[in-house]
Structure of 3-isopropylmalate dehydrogenase:
Amino acid sequence: MPANKKLLVLPGDGIGPEVMGEVRRVIDWMAHRRSLSFEIDEGLVGGAAIDALGSPCPDETVAKAKSADAVLFGSVGGPKWDSLPFEQRPELGILRLRKDLGLFANLRPAVVLDPLVEASSLKADVVRGVDIMVVRETVGGVYFGEPRGVEKLPDGRRRGFDTQVYVEDEIARVARVAFDLARKRRNKVTSVEKANVMQSGRLWRAVVGEVQKAEYPDVQLENMYADNCAMQLCSRPKQFDVILGDNLFGDVLSDLAAALTGSLGMLPSATLGAVDPTTGKRHALYEPIHGSAPDIAGKGVANPCAQMLSFAMLLRWSFGLEEDARLLETAIEKVLAGGLRTADIMQAGMARVGTSVMGEAVVRELDKLAA
Ligand SMILES: NC(=O)c1ccc[n+]([C@@H]2O[C@H](COP(=O)([O-])OP(=O)(O)OC[C@H]3O[C@@H](n4cnc5c(N)ncnc54)[C@H](O)[C@@H]3O)[C@@H](O)[C@H]2O)c1
Ligand SMILES: CC(C)[C@H](C(=O)O)[C@@H](O)C(=O)O
Ligand SMILES: [Mg+2]
């Protein structure tokens, strides 16, 4: 009997628990039909943790995450907690988990599925066949740099400041993740920064170039300013294979890439730590790139695909279950090809459904594929 796979599920806030409910159906299906035995624990994070325990990321949640084989994360935040002081905000829940678990490389695949070509706001010819992997650095940069704050100037005006900081090895290790991925894809990395105006951007460009020259001379490296990259993503997205960016540019450009695929509700992600050389294990957290979507929370209309696809990434990256991951991805694509659409990807002539009907349809499709 294979050992249980320890999963920590953190639904969070807003649509997080709604879309996570649909993944739980898939997990149950995998357990019964594919004999995958998961040992599931659930924890509190974000606003839900603030309400219950007074902290967006309680120590207990961090400890559970550290001892799990993989963490499946929903989303955090919402208007209820927006007026809390900066250091108590729900968003610190995900930031602390990334930092404390050393999750420095965030993989955000933006794939335009055939059935959704027409759901994109861009022309079908521009987006058909797009398959981009955004690799975003997630434990450094302006998200964590010191000093930061808001101060009062002698003349009474307020001054807000943040600091963008990168040490060269933080850049090099995430660059290696991007180059390794490119080797398994179309062998090209586009590294984005603002080396024309930022010192840290200059260092970023230099270090990525050094890593490529020394360790990946077979991989094509292109440097691009982040603003140009945003424009090129909208005009010629098919030129991109792997896009490598810092914490902030990676965040912004991956939301933009999500728009190519039809909706933020379609984009999953995996955030990975370093492999421990003694155990061969790594910490990993899987989450959709979207947030808690307060505008639609509680209505049962959120698209559960990004959360489900995050679970597929978990099967692939944490457990090497490529076949099961593909099965789930295929089931989702088939449901979309069959014409079901949540509101965010709705198109003329398709059937509009809510979160749970979409989830049920995916499980039915899994049944058919496995028959
Ligand atoms: N990882 C996270 O937990 C995470 C990520 C991003 C934002 N947030 C937080 O979420 C809150 C809301 O932020 P926001 O509105 O800027 O971003 P958001 O991603 O929550 O929503 C942006 C837009 O996309 C839509 N959308 C997002 N996911 C969807 C889905 N699965 N199905 C259908 N539509 C979907 C929303 O309805 C909204 O119109 C904020 O508190 C923010 O800090 C959290
Ligand atoms: C909620 C927020 C802290 C987070 C980020 O900026 O990293 C989100 O936008 C994301 O993309 O995961
Ligand atoms: Mg984001």
Q: What stands out?
A: The longest helix spans residues 16-33. The chain has a mean pLDDT of 97. The pocket of nicotinamide-adenine-dinucleotide (ligand 1) is lined by residues 15, 19, 75-78, 91, 94, 263-265, 287, 290-296, 302-303, 306, 344 (CB under 6 Å).
